[in-house]
Amino acid sequence: MTKRGMRKANVIVLILTLVSVLLTVPQPEQTEVVEIADEGWVTFEATAYTARCDGCTGITKTGVDIRESVMYEGLTVIAVDPDVIPLGSAVEIRLSDGAIIEGTAQDVGAAIKGRRIDIAHATKKAAYAFGRQDVEVRIINEYEAEE
To answer: Assign residue 58 a region: left if phi > 0, alpha if psi is -120 to 50, beta otherwise?
Structure first.
């Protein structure tokens, strides 16, 4: 056998040895991933806004005036993507610290798409303090528009 033939044979033996070793290494057991989240809770990214921002009118998409109060029918006004949470729906929002806000989807926002919500706050200071955080949201009473 030529030197070149010996090198090819050695490479083939090396490759077969590596494959053999890899096949005998114990593989981790495949386990089914189980979602631990409570029933109905879905993760969203939450931000904060006020009625007094640049370009804001203080009137929500559904006509609620939040210039004097960010509450509507006892619930905190939130902006949503209506394709994800229908306008008029009541929701619970579990913050990163575990606190729960009861909200109502009354507004939309240009940047609020998919699993994002914007929570109305009375002051810019409160909105800045809230910042941006991951929250858990569940719909309590989904609004169904009449046809």
So the answer is: left
* Domain assignment of residue 34, yes or no: no
What's the total number of domains in the chain? 1
Q: What pTM did the predictor assign?
A: 0.71
List, in sequence order, every residue forming a beta bridge with 105; answer none if it has no partner: 78
115-141: b or e for each residue (b if 16 or more CB lie within 10 Å)?
bbbbbbbbeeeebeeeeeeebbbebee
The answer to whether position 77 is within a domain reads yes
In a domain, residue 56? The reply is: yes
What is the mean pLDDT, run by run of 10 residues, along the chain of 147 residues?
Answer: 67 60 49 46 97 88 96 98 97 96 96 96 96 97 70
The CATH number for 68's domain is 2.40.40.10
Which residues make Cβ contacts (< 8 Å) with residue 100, sequence separation at least 6? 92, 93, 94
Would residue 65 count as lying in a domain? yes
